[in-house]
Amino acid sequence: MKEASRIQAIIEVMDEIIKDLNPADNILDEYFKKRRYIGSKDRRFIADEAWKIIRNRMKYTEMLSPYFDARLLVGLHFINSDLELLFNSEEYAPMKLSKLEKETLKKAEEVEDLNEFSLYECPKWLFDKFDNKRLLESLNEPAYLDVRANLTSREKAKERLKKEGLFFSYTPLCPIGLRSYDRINLNNCITYQDGDIEVMDEASQIIALLCNVKKHHKVIDYCAGAGGKSLAIGALLNNEGVIFAHDINAKRLAKINKRAERLGIKNIKLVENVKDDDFQRFIIDAPCSGSGTWRRSPDAKFRLTLKKLEETTKTQEEILEFGANHVKDGGELIYITCSVFPEENEEQIEKFLKKHPNFEVLNHKELWKDILDINVYPFDSERYLKFSPLNTKTDGFFFCALKKNPS
Prior knowledge:
Elements: H1 3-17, H2 24-33, H3 40-55, H4 57-64, H5 70-77, H6 83-86, H7 99-110, H8 116-119, H9 124-127, H10 133-138, E1 145-149, H11 154-163, E2 169-170, E3 177-180, H12 190-193, E4 197-199, H13 202-210, E5 219-221, H14 228-236, E6 243-245, H15 250-253, H16 255-263, E7 268-270, E8 279-285, H17 300-303, H18 306-324, E9 327-337, H19 346-355, E10 359-361, H20 364-372, E11 385-387, E12 397-404
Parallel strand pairs: 5-6, 5-8, 6-7, 8-9
Antiparallel strand pairs: 1-3, 1-4, 2-3, 9-12, 10-12, 11-12
Helix pairs in contact: 1-3, 1-5, 4-5, 4-7, 13-14
């Protein structure tokens, strides 16, 4: 593709992304599926630059104010290039910049003082929720690629990847994980296709271990989604025992089957209705704001609203109540989110405990050391675990295990 054609592609992609209706990665995937003639190098350039624009969207928007559209965002992003050459009205190229567009871009270049929330790339209502601005800043940095070894050792998986010319390091905390500091497309990776690895953030891998599921346990992954935790636990059990998986979205849940086939996981059973009340592990990977995953989905913060957050916290409460009634005495109710907001995390737990005094929080420092067998404990509390790019170099996750005692 000519350089101007690449710019037009970025404009088309960004035009959809800034509508804030669908995830940016879905939009990019769909765009490239419909244009299979675009080569891999061009795809990478288009995608990389689109993500850079998303990560600078707040700054760009304020600099361009009161005007805002995809053409101006892209123009500002490439302001140090020859815009006359890039916006040239030739076939497959963007239309020439209008007089107003040129004036707007020129004024944007001269903007010096920006609001603090724009500098931190966060809508103001969300910015005000963060006491720790370093955490907010870290959530706008690109994430590493983490994978877990599946039904094999990570040493063997690492060697297989190396033979394919893909170089991974061991994850610093998790004994089953590998990390790449480079951007890698695994679609053509044989090690991935054969099921020896699966993409999974290190924090999520650790959480699967901390669920401490044994093959004789009756266990359910209640908000299973596409099955990431279920598949990881199935592999940790080496296909022994049974993991029941449930999700309110049956279509999303059904995706587990295809993933399980590639990974060779055979001990997951999908369930539509949950009636049993004797689970020894009731795992709730709760629906949440997803604020802990903004490194991977920086566009998600623009689709989140206060109403959605309030609805989500109410749903979390309801799911915790349901779980409390379906875990047996002596069993564990495990609550997980990929959020960094207290109202979705520790505040939910404390509220739950007031209603259910027969539940007690496990000592997570002891659990951590027993399961991971490492001296490092990167958390401030023994009452719950709060993963983040700052303390664990992972996505933001919350984990709390609650033991049910007889009433």
